[in-house]
Fold this protein.
Amino acid sequence: MKPLPILDRHQQQAADVMYDHGRVLVRQLVETDTHNRPVYDYLASEETPCGVRTAVNHEATDAEGNVVLVDYVIRLPHGTDVADGDRFRITNRHGWPAYAPVDCELVGAVQRGPTAVTITAREVTHGD
Amino acid sequence: MAAPTSYDEAGFKAYLHGRAARSGVADAFGWSIEAGSYDDVVVEALLAYGAAEVSEATDVAKLRALGGLALWQAAREAAVLEVDYSADGTSFSREAIFAHIEALLAQARLDALPYQAALDYSVDILSVAHRDPYGALDL
């Protein structure tokens, strides 16, 4: 099938209006503990532009099929490497210098659309 | 600052790029002098002017007017695919760019009108007779 001739332009236009920044926190096996069990951690990848929308009463379905409220709907540039088990750190919004980074866990599946990768995320409030 | 009395090709392209850059069109379409984005615009302007080289076009006001017309015509062709669309939870009103260029093109047409000899517009004033249907008949 022939690709849309304007798809590249739309992907670029979508990226051009991402005014926030963040990092994908990639879930990786970092070591094994004394009982030889895998220990995972989240390693920050390079900062990427993103479009963060604060979600109000926005529901998403998590991996277990539970419907939960999410805090953010985040658009990432088309082709961004992010998996369902990763986390996302919002490092800046609208260039505001005093913004304190927020770590989020992804809720539901990563949605890879024609112009952007969309994730729904909830702030990490527990210890890990 | 003195008004220019002549242009060379590089100077005329810089003028065209300045107009396109001020309106944001150059940025929207990725136009630059180095990429040759204005080569055809210069050719169109020269054809309309009737000169073979930019340096031969000594009427600067005419060259600028015809250059502006060629520039916005080229921009309109480039903007054909600027359409409104929604994707991945975001909507884009790109047709505003097309409307913006249409307005600039309309103004450029007016600016270039005095220099388009081939059109040779003229205005004839015709007498108008007013007939009142309720008035007395002139028998």
